[in-house]
Write a structure and sequence with these properties.
mainly beta, 3 helices, 9 strands, 45% strand
């Protein structure tokens, strides 16, 4: 995988897995750019860490540039983020060792639950066989984009 490339597939969750060994992190994120913009600029608080992320492109393979920022910088920028979402992210491993990130969204998107898997290359992404608790593959479906959901009517 290129250094600033994200290769990811996203699925709805058909049924909740056992999350006993998974780690939960509270996330709030906001978007400075609008859904129709070709570049995405996102602010994210993930637990006690704060990030600014720029994403380019659409679909399964995208450019991603992320940097951690001090809380003070995040707090100064946060008012510019007009589209926002909150979720709990459960990070765990599948039976084959593959890392998954299961997001449980807060209102107004509750009870939406999606699971994402990142890959080293496109071949691995295409070869991936989802476990039975994964539901419909929504990779590339803009309706399930965090950016689009952040601006959905509340």
């Amino acid at each position: 995988m290129a250094k600033n490339t994200e290769i990811e597939r996203k699925f709805l969750v058909a049924r909740m897995p056992d999350l006993t060994d998974a780690k939960a992190t509270e996330i709030r994120q906001g978007y400075v750019t609008r859904p129709e913009d070709s570049i995405e600029v996102r602010l994210r608080q993930k637990g006690a860490a704060f990030f600014v992320t720029i994403k380019t492109g659409e679909g399964m393979v995208r450019g991603e540039y992320e940097t951690e920022v001090p809380r003070e910088a995040f707090d100064r920028l946060w008012p510019a983020a007009t589209g926002r979402i909150e979720k709990t992210r459960w990070t765990g491993r599948l039976a084959d060792g593959t890392v998954f990130e299961l997001d449980v969204f807060e209102a107004p998107h509750a009870p939406l639950t999606v699971v994402e898997v990142e890959f080293e290359d496109e071949a691995a992404a295409h070869a991936f066989v989802a476990p039975d608790w994964f539901g419909e593959d929504v990779s590339g479906n803009k309706a399930y984009s965090n950016k689009v959901m952040a601006f959905a009517p509340r």
